[in-house]
Specification:
By secondary structure, the chain is mainly α. The chain has helices spanning 12-44, 55-85, 91-124, 127-156. Helices cover 82% and strands 0% of the residues. It is flat and about 60 Å long.
Length: 157
Amino acid sequence: MEAAQRRPGETPSERADRNWNELMQELRVMQTGTQILTGFLLAVAFQPRFEHLDDVQRTLYIVLVLLAATATVLALTPVGLHRMLFHQHRKVDLVRMANRLVKANLVVIGAVTVGVVALILDVTVDRPVAIVAVCLGVVVILLLWVALPRHLRRDAD
């Protein structure tokens, strides 16, 4: 059963509360992963080998730091919205917006994850291996995050 579907006897307010709780659980997982990736990226700049990165690697690193910061902000935005809209009976709107933010954050986190792998492989192996890894990473993410849910939805119908 999809989270947005109404359960028997469930009021719109109860459904919004349930959906909000499910979104918060998802955000906790996202925040942990984002914190780990961001911490890794921030530590890289202080490593002795950082000064030996070429222009492509340095640019990729900067893009990844910006994406990680974006992921952090996206993951925290629903919490900020909840705080600002608390006691205003806007839970349905809040759930709708948080759902969109979580989906956008999945795209950003996917990009950061694939990018970090690319940076590591580019530095430790070589650029062609990093490019292959990016292509494979994008395919795997699309299969798991787009194709699989569509397949499961089709099976449920």
